[in-house]
From TrEMBL:
Coiled-coil segments: none
Major subcellular location class: membrane
GO BP terms: response to arsenic-containing substance
Superkingdom per UniProt: Bacteria
Originating species: Micromonospora lupini str. Lupac 08
Stated name of the protein: Arsenical pump membrane permease
Matches recorded under InterPro entries: Arsenical_pump_ArsB, Cit_transptr-like_dom
Record's bilayer topology term: Multi-pass membrane protein
Domain Citrate transporter-like: 19-362
One Pfam family of this chain: CitMHS
Amino acid sequence: MKSAAGAPPAPPEPTAPWRPHPLDVVAVVLAVAGAACALSGLLPRAETTATLHRILPLLLFLGTVIVLAELTAVAGVFDVLASRLAIASRGRWAALFLLCGGLATVTTLVLNLDTTAVLLTPVLLALARGLRVPAGPLAVTTVWLANTASLLLPVSNLTNLLAADRVGLTPLAYAERMALPQLAAVTVTMVLLWYGWWRRERPAGGRFVPPAPHVPADPVLHRIALAGCLLFVAGILAGVEIGLASSVALALVLLGFVVRSPTTLRAQLVPVRLLLFVVGLFLVVQTLGRHGLDDLVADLVGADGGAAGALRAGGTGALLANAVNNLPAYLAGEAVLPSADHTRLLALLIGTNVGPLAAPWASLATLLWFERCRAAGVAVPVRRFVLTSTLLAVVGTLAAVGALLLVS
């Protein structure tokens, strides 16, 4: 068969073979390994049940909040916020840096680090697109401050809730104890952000042309999605369990999309990979704890007190967080430290909060951030990210633990 012009039709373009993303492979391997641990008896049934029961609320939160973020992005909420942030900076790159850093810090302190990773990352990525500047500095701002600004309040991080309960501190007493370490961690983060990322990417003259205010394609859907986000934030501030708050907010947004844009709703919105990763991770780490990990952690933490003991606990927390994940790392360290040793327990907490930056799996916030960047098609320079993140993990942990020793 020839075309109307007499030339043979062009052959179809070859399609690239499908290849799984490396994180897909990691998630499946972890899920299979976790299931094998549970089914083989390496992890007793009672402990398997207890572990699954403990992480179910976490899985509910992760699944619902990611879908909420996806739909909110589609509704244009993040684009509107990004344009307003750029307008408020009046075209000054340094002012934009402070606004973005301040927003990420406040969001993490008042809400929690996962909220910053999920909801704020798309805001800054949309801002980078609108300004036509490299997305790296803005993207790294969210993931760094999501972790390092999560020390001050018990609600800022799930590990904080565990630590505050273990040391028996009220929220106010806990905040008083962690205020100086938090200030030290954020200060180090902002300095490294500026010199490692923002200063290198600043436009000529340190100025840019602010974009016009973004107008969403569907104003009604935009208002519904915005209401869902505000409802989620209000629920967190009111002390509602995070999984319930995200589920109610998602239900509202889903209803809006069912009415206004039903074709947007698809099964791929559900973060199956992330959920498999979390389940497998917890089961594997729990099993390893029974078969030598707890002893290894005890050796790493040591029995020394004072400044050396606190620094060792903080370093162990940061090291284990990047090796496995910050939540299991904190639990493993907590299990081998006396409950009366408040300084070393809080130093361990600092390491697991400030340190988990170099590896994608180091904290749920870091993993969620990678998911947001991947969904937006943003590739952060891996080598520079790992090097600067490792530097921040080391210097930030040392600075925060040093500040903790000053108030202990």
